[in-house]
Amino acid sequence: MGLMDASDSRLAELTRWTSEDLGFAGARIAPASADASFRRYFRVFRGDETYIAMDAPPDKEDLAPFVGVARLLLEMGLNAPVVLAIDAKRGYLLLSDLGQRQYLDELKAQGDADRLYADAMAALGVMQTAGGKSHDLPHYGHALLMREMQLMPEWFLDRHLGLSLTPAELGMLNGLFEALARAALAQPATFVHRDYHSRNLLLTPANNPGILDFQDAVRGPVTYDLVSLLKDCYIAWPAARVRDWALGYRERLLAANFPLGADETEFIRWFDLMGLQRHIKVLGIFARLFYRDAKPQYLNDLPLVLDYTRDAAARYAETAAFAQFIAKRIDPAFPAAQRRALP
To answer: Which residues of 149-170 are buried (b: 16+ CB within 10 A; e: fewer)?
Structure first.
């Protein structure tokens, strides 16, 4: 089993684990993917079969949530990786391989978006209507919602844009974050994947989609995953189409007797404000991934995330001051910040 980089001690150890401990002598290992965390994934080729090996440094990542949520999703009849072997001490997992064709690739290649999103929303509906399956997950509470949004002033406004905020601007942001957290907590709580979008869904021949990157799942607002899917940070759709998809999903929940308690107008307001909370968080996360973690590729997705943020903020009276702040302070500074970071 060849190594890609002789200086990569964890990869060397992972190779020994799969080759010697698991008995995959002679197998080939190649990079499969990396994500925004410290986890890495490798594809293991053994004859005609393939597997996925996860490297999750135990001082930085906990395997238990991934293993637990994978079990939950499989119990629901959804298409998640099967955990085949675990080395918790060293932070390694061997998983079944769900394939390589991301939703994002298929959508950019002009795949049938309506069919793909129908499958994704059907799977989401199963997650969100599976009775008590989510009750043991961590609660997506006020503190976490607020902590996520605070990443934006620190990493996007200060570090990326170089803005110094006035006391009035800081007060406006704190008031906005509080209002968005309250709006999220007013929604019915259910299973939340937390990263349910086109890079974490795989096109599969049966039981589509394959679902990845679910280890941060929580119990929280019903529209969170829907907005992750339909206001995706990596691909955009016309607003009218997004609204139709979102309202179609609302009908799916009602047909499943989910206790929604919201008419169409309120549901879309939940959806928009939840999206604003998420995209404020993502502005901070994508900037942090560049400045702290040396992952520049996410800066290329900041313009779309900012577009979503600007659009949602302009829709409601309680977020109008933030829309004005974007126009006055963020939009003028953003192009130069992107040029500095990505010359």
So the answer is: bbbbbebbbebbbebeeeeebe
